[in-house]
């Protein structure tokens, strides 16, 4: 054995051992996680297995003909189209280049023209959000790619973010009941990483299950895939649709069913404040914790929704009599509660360009939910960040006067002295700047302030 090889061999063995040990630890951790977080019948499931199962099934011509017949006879209002020989190109985030909203390369394409199917292009409220440049197509060769012969229902984009998932990822699923008897696979893209949708407490799992769509039938495309037949429902919800949602979609959300489960220690809670004070770097309100102490004196319980399951949030909201929200995605469960009886108030946390009300509050309007909108934002600090990450200075006394006028509280929040208020703003600004100091948008903003 050459001396050089003798010298290198021990290091290779050590490296291999470390890699194997790490792999074993990852495998062990994943097994434990599946045991504790999944239902038993989903233990061996994975996105890869679902995709393989879909590709292994051979097409049933009789089933295909019956499916086409049912779709052709469906109410034209559903606007469902069927496309054959489709190429599913992976979806990736693309440079926005001053485009509004998120933007992506990839999607469902015509096999002959290699152009995106218009019916499957996602609308983000301002523009269509997908394109398929020739340079991108060349990165994904079609040779030896996966093939699916079974008809699939196109679900759209599955966002790994609660708010975007509710507003943008459910927009085509209203058509599922039409094809439910065929138990179709439902195809999604996951542009912002895959959510842990196989885990029973995950919000995607609970929402999809609430519409009686089998979790096992979801397929996520991350490689070039040929699909024999894709059923594409028209997009009927999302940003740009929320203020006046299509009746078909509204009726679909009203079919949602869930397991009633109260958060620990909160059964019988009638007055709730939905807080953002425990969220880090995701849009905060100066002095919110002080305001929470005032609300506790007024008989409110403080609730941090990010620490609880979707079903727990729904259960708590559905039995409450008064709910005050710090504006954000936590509002969205209300659209699933057609029988919501609580009086609702929403404290604005940021000003958005050309909008008098937040996009999440607009969703409530679209479902004819009456609520008190309180805009008491006096200052807004962003330092180059997007407005949803802003730190807002709220006039809490003004907010409390609105709450008092509409019967949410019995007395107003005390007026802070100028010195006390200034000290509070300084303290929270220091903390905010410390936490965003590594953000590239913040760094670019600071560089723009150079003095010479």
Rg over C-alpha atoms, rounded to the nearest angstrom: 25 Å
- Sheet having the most strands: 8 strands, mixed
Q: Into how many domains do the coordinates divide? A: 2
Helix content: 25-40%
Structural class: alpha/beta
Mean pLDDT over all positions: 91
Topology:
Layout: H1 3-37, H2 47-56, H3 61-73, E1 80-93, E2 104-110, E3 130-131, H4 134-137, E4 146-148, E5 152-157, H5 162-169, H6 176-179, E6 185-189, H7 203-210, E7 218-220, E8 225-233, H8 247-253, E9 271-274, E10 284-286, H9 288-297, E11 301-303, H10 310-319, E12 322-326, E13 343-347, H11 359-366, E14 372-374, E15 377-381, E16 391-394, H12 396-405, H13 418-436, H14 440-448
Structure description:
The chain is an alpha/beta fold and 452 residues long. It has 2 domains: 47-252, no CATH class; 271-448. The chain has 14 helices and 16 strands. Strands 1, 2, 3, 4, 5, 6, 7 and 8 form an 8-stranded mixed beta sheet that branches. The longest helix is centred in the N-terminal third of the chain and has 35 residues, at 3-37. The chain is globular, with a radius of gyration of 25 Å. The chain starts with a helix and ends with a helix.
């Amino acid at each position: 054995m050459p001396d050089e090889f003798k010298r290198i061999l021990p290091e290779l063995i050590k490296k291999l051992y470390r890699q194997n040990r790490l792999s074993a630890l990852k495998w062990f951790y994943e097994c434990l996680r599946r045991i504790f977080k999944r239902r038993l019948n989903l233990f061996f499931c994975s996105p890869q297995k679902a995709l393989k199962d879909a590709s292994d099934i051979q097409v049933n011509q009789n089933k295909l003909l019956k499916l086409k017949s049912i779709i052709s006879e469906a109410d034209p209002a559903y606007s469902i189209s069927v496309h054959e020989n489709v190429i599913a190109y992976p979806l990736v985030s693309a440079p926005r280049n001053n485009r509004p909203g998120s933007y992506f390369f990839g999607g469902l394409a015509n096999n002959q023209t290699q152009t995106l199917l218009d019916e499957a292009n996602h609308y983000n409220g301002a523009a269509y959000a997908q394109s398929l440049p020739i340079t991108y197509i060349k990165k994904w060769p079609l040779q030896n790619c996966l093939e699916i012969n079974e008809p699939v229902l196109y679900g759209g984009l599955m966002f790994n973010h609660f708010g975007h998932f509710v507003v943008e990822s459910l927009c085509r699923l209203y058509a599922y009941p039409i094809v439910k008897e065929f138990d179709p696979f439902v195809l999604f893209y996951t542009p912002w990483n895959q959510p842990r949708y196989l885990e029973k407490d995950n919000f995607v799992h609970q929402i999809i299950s609430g519409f009686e769509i089998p979790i096992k039938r979801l397929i996520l495309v991350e490689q070039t895939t040929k699909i024999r037949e894709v059923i594409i429902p028209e997009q009927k919800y999302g940003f740009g649709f929320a203020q006046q949602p299509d009746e078909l979609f509204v009726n679909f959300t009203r079919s949602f069913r869930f397991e009633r489960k109260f958060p620990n220690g909160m059964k019988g809670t009638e007055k709730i404040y939905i807080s953002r004070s425990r969220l880090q770097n995701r849009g905060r309100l100066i002095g919110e914790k002080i305001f929470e102490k005032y609300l506790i004196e007024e008989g409110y319980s403080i609730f941090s929704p990010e620490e609880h399951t979707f079903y727990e949030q729904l259960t708590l909201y559905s039995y409450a009599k008064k709910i005050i929200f710090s504006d954000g995605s936590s509002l969205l469960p209300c659209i699933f509660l057609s029988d919501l009886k609580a009086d609702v108030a929403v404290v604005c946390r940021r000003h958005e360009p050309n909008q008098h009300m937040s996009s999440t509050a607009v969703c409530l309007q679209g479902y004819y939910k009456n609520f008190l909108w309180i805009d008491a934002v006096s200052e807004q600090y962003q330092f180059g960040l997007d407005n949803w990450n802003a730190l807002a200075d709220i006039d809490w006394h003004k907010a409390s006067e609105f709450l008092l006028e509409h019967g949410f509280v019995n007395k107003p929040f005390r007026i802070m002295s100028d010195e006390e208020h200034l000290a509070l703003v300084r303290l929270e600004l220091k903390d905010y700047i410390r936490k965003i100091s590594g953000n590239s948008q913040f760094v670019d903003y600071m560089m723009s302030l150079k003095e010479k």
